[in-house]
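pinned: reference chain
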Amino acid sequence: MKKTVATIEARMTSSRLPGKVLLPVLGKPILGYLFDRLKKVTLIDEIVLATTINKADDPIVDYAKSEGISVFRGSEDDVLLRVVDAAKYVGGDIIIEITGDCPIIDPELIDQCIQLYKFNNASYVGNAHVRSYPDGMDVQVFSLADLQKSGEMTNDKLDREHVSLFMRNHPEIFPHLHMVAPTSIFWPELGLTLDEKEDFELLKSIIEYFYSIQKPYFGIYDCVSFLKENPQLLEINQKVKRKGDT
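pinned: its structure tokens
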């Protein structure tokens, strides 16, 4: 049986919001909410934090270990190699690539992406390359073998930094299958990712609301409904520029 592992790319030295993954919400680091959600994904066998060898990342390592999460430390700049080595470290065959700035990702979306991958012949399955879901719900699935193959084909700095970029740019080598959001949650311009302080304030408001009504594992449908009913919250981070925005 092939082992399915989720790799989480996270570090403390974010240029826009240093230390963001350990910012507290309801007394818990926001990264912990991502850990909790990944633990709910039925088709993941193991979770591994793929962080760097920088001493600044020691607090993330300590926190992950305290939560029972495996840890691999590698290059800060060559994230592709870091993810490859993290998957190898835990004996993974299929990689679910998740970034640490998606703390309220929906576990069901991850399960759906894994199912699509397992029952089709695509090398790359995801919901982020063709944007339709809110930013922050990003899931990508591929094999360790295919990621290694892509890494052997490029030394471009951007390809090494953005793990799956070469695979995404070469569907003729790595066939794609894209998961597109249904109409009711189609909202690609909605930012639910943790890039800047304003993002943290919005995510904090969302988490605090759902915990107040005893619904800690709220999904994307819940989140979209809540924000449509409370549009004033959207003003919190509407001016944040996303990477790649013009």
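why pinned: The mean pLDDT is 96. The chain has nine helices and nine strands.
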